[in-house]
Amino acid sequence: MKQKRYYYHYIICGCIAAAAATTRASDPNAVLDQSRTLRRQFMAHTLSAVSEKTPDEKEATLAELIEQVLSLQAPQTKDPNQPSPSSSVADEDPNSKPLEQKTSAPSSAKQTTEQQTDAATKQRNHWIEWLSTIEDPESIPHPKELADVLYRAGRLESAARYYDIALSQTSKEQAPTYSWLLFQSANCVRRTDAAKAKTRYEELVQLYPNSVWAAAAQGRLQMLNWLETNQTQVQQYTTLRSENE
Q1: Less Cβ crowding at N or C end of the chain, within 10 Å?
Q2: Contact between residue 147 and residue 162 where contact means Cβ atoms under 8 Å apart
Q3: Which domains, from first to last, does the chain contain?
Q4: How many other β-carbons are positioned within 10 Å of the β-carbon of residue 209?
Q5: Model confidence over 151-200: pLDDT tens digits?
Q6: What is the rounded CA–CA span in Å between residue 204 and residue 180?
Q7: 196 and 186 Cβ atoms separated by less than 8 Å
Q8: Which of 14, 38, 13, 56 is closest to 154 using CA atoms?
Q9: Contact present, 136 and 157 (Cβ < 8 Å)
Q10: C-alpha to C-alpha distance for 208 and 166, rounded to whole angstroms
């Protein structure tokens, strides 16, 4: 995701530079000034408030995080007489294990890691499919938290669905939460549905002009407007770059 973001940034900067080369001699700095301004805004606002993770981290933790959010509805009760896994491990005497069990072979450790990754992948795919096909998504508890988890994992389409549900269940008087939901909802669709993203960003700026997210929304609005105005140049540059690679 980070590579795509940087690639996208280079495309934009290249287009701006190309436009600058064709600017009238009477106003040679106009486009360059715009380039610098947009670049600063892009770099300032491209970092999401939800931290990014590596692909391996996303793979291993997504299913677990989804389960944690969903389990908030009906937490499981625990038998007080049942020892916890941590206490069971702590009660074991490490000296009582045979030497060959203490020093596992690297190949066995690698195989175990691969098996755990495969299990996490299957579990993740199960939850993603279930969340995408559920007939009554409004019944899911804590849609905001679930959307945040999906966003962190790069599942923007599913995240957008639950951000919209959270918006419908949140009052505009809850400014911090509502402004965040507007911002994230727009972020999820800004590359697939620019019109909807612009509507969300504009609503955020109008409703909460002093919000911490309003400045970021304004920057991304300007970027979307610039891309819309210079769409032909962006497409030409993208095609040319693809042919040369």
Answers
A1: C
A2: yes
A3: 2-49+231-244 (no CATH), 55-69+118-229 (1.25.40.10)
A4: 11
A5: 988 889 989 999 999 999 999 999 999 999 999 999 999 999 999 999 99
A6: 9
A7: yes
A8: 56
A9: no
A10: 18
- What is the token pair recorded at 2? 């980070």
Residue 39 identity (one-letter amino acid): R
Residue 97 CB neighbour total at 10 angstroms: 10
User: At 244, which helix (H) or strand (E)?
Assistant: helix 231-244
pTM exceeds 0.85 for this model: no
Give the Cα separation of 74 and 68 in Å (integer): 11
User: From CA 181, how far away is CA 124, in angstroms rounded?
Assistant: 24
Alpha-carbon torsion (235, 34, 188, 190), positive or negative: negative
Three-state DSSP at 25 gives coil
Cβ(147)–Cβ(177) under 8 Å?
Answer: no
CA 237 to CA 231: how far, in whole Å? Answer: 10
